[in-house]
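Hi support team,

I'm opening this ticket because the web form for multi-chain structure prediction keeps timing out on my end. I have pasted the exact lines I submitted so you can reproduce it. The total is 714 residues across two entries, so I didn't expect it to be a heavy job. Is there a limit I'm missing, or should I split the entries? Thanks in advance, R.K.
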Amino acid sequence: MLPRQFTVVLSALALAASAVAADTPLKVEYPKPLFAGTPRPISLANLEPAGIKRPDLMVPAGTTLLSKGKKVTSSDALPVIGELSFITDGDKTGIDGAYVELGPNTQWVQVDLGASAKVAAVAVWHFHSQARVYHDVVIQVSDDAEFKKGVTTIFNTDDDNSSKLGKGSDKSYVETNNGRVVEGKGAVGRYVRLYSNGNTSDELNHYCEVEVFGALK
Amino acid sequence: MPLLRWLPLALLTLAAFWLRTHDLARRPMHADEANQAVKLGELLDAGRYAFDPRDHHGPTLYYAALPVAWLRGESSLASLTEGTVRLVPALFGTLTVLLVAALAAPLGRWPALAAAALVATAPPAVYYSRYFIQETLLVTWVLGAILAVRTWWRTGLTRWALAAGVCAGCAQSTKASAPLFLAAGLLALWVARDGTPLTRRPGHDLAFALGATVLAAALLYSSFGTNLHGLRDALTVYTHAATRFGGEAAATGHEKPWWYYLRIFGWHREGGLLWHQLAWSALAVAGALVAVCRRDAWIRGAAIYTLLIATAFSLFAYKTPWHAVHFVPGLAIVAAGALAAIARLRTGRLVALAFALITVATLVQQAWRAAFLRPADPRNPYAYVHSSPDVLKYRPLADAARQAFPGQPIRVISEEYWPLPWYFRGLKDVGYYIETPMDCDGALLVVSPNMVEAVRATLKEHYDESILGLRPGVLCIVMQRERGPAGAREPVANQPR
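Hello R.K., no limit was hit. The queue was backed up. Here is the completed structure from your submission:
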């Protein structure tokens, strides 16, 4: 048998190693910016400053991109422009032909990961060729495809509950090529659903790309 | 039977009227529309109007809207509605369809009907007939003047010279660019003339026409004699224009390449949407060839008018899409000339009918998309720097804030704020500031991103902040004063359910 002190030291090293392993920065590939002109600088209590690089999001080691090429469904099953498959096709350039446009009012898209997973992060690019803010952005995770039970909300900018999904306190943000990377908060589920309710330029809803990072259970 | 003879044109006019008036209030007010509607509201409220040569076009739009507002029981700015103000260009736009049918009559009955159908369904004509600005009225007055001159030439009756003068005076009172269209129209008429005028007193009739022009313009610019300064200002408008658009002037932000209008009447794809008027433009090109080859004076006149207008607007760096509406009547008549030429060929009638139907169908599809499906979409070539649908959200917020904090002001602190004065019409204690005031507190604050830090520094009360758009790329921070004790906000539901 190993001496007791040696066991304690080994255990401490293992804990430290696991802690270090959890501090892996999430690698997200960002597309080139598409702003035609300089966006207006915005400083707002409920709005993130534009043009400032956000700190890397730390995710557990072994986190991988789970959503690439996965099936996407939507409240607008037949978008006029683009296809739902664009959302997980890896093309986040935001140019014409690389985004899908959903109808007005609150709409959602839903990524089926194929199996239940522990979600570490969700990255979303709505539309980044113009300074605009999407209203009531809500991201939820669930094992229920209907999102009627076991729903975890990991992001919510709906500060007046106009989308009837609960009032949120997350900050709205100006769309840029950096999109928005949201922490998964340990949510578990097979489906990731993203809501929005028009934007400051028009009443429509757009998605260039959604990436879900995590580990299958 | 006379009834059957006129039935197609009557049905076409009804269709044009429907396209121009259906669901008029749906599109948010453009900043220019809102500005003009507020000016009309001031005329309704105070009964006074004074021509402003620096920042506004002529008075005709406002005076034309007065009877429409009265008939609809809207006698103040507060009671004025989008539907009422937009009904004015809609009525003029419908009249334009009839005027084009009359102007194209020398081509024959069916080509004239085709020309009217092209105007009735042309996307620029439909879109800007639903838009409370001067452009459609100007088109109507100019066409009225051209038709009156032509009728005077053929009949020799002085009353047509008078009618031409009144139309020219009203055109001038609509927009200071009227002389360009009137000159182009006269040149086109000269090219298309047949013989000599029937009148025996051309000098007498010309004097009557000029007198009517001056009288009509003077009445309108002087606000029917209540503002004589308006007469002087009607002339200084060109000085202001030279200062604004002259060689030494700073860029206006509306400078565009020479082919801008060609693109509108050609085709382009933007954001996944295809915009085109190709079939019509192809017919118009064919019509121009007919005018050259067959020496058809009337088509040639219409072609020259269109070419002059297109050249002038293409050379002028300042371009806005509503100028495209001036191309529509000429293009329609020239295209109808092509249809008439095709119909004269053996078995050509069916081919001409097919071309006409296909062209009108494409125009209807494009007009529907522009005016009804995506009337404020930034990709819509006619929705120029248009207000975003978010502007409809400001008034409910203002009403709620006013209810929660009666007597407290609503402050709009922003370098840009149109069309908000329209949406806040009828509300008392609404202030607009382009610099940060000493006291910024109020029931509701609408603040530009550039000024929000300075505003926050002055605030004594607590506010909830959110973001709304004004138009694409232009955002406003909406600050709603918190109800109850500061900091006692509702708990958030941003937790697992």
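A quick check on our side: The CA atoms of residues 80 and 158 of chain A lie 26 Å apart. Let us know if the file doesn't open in your viewer.
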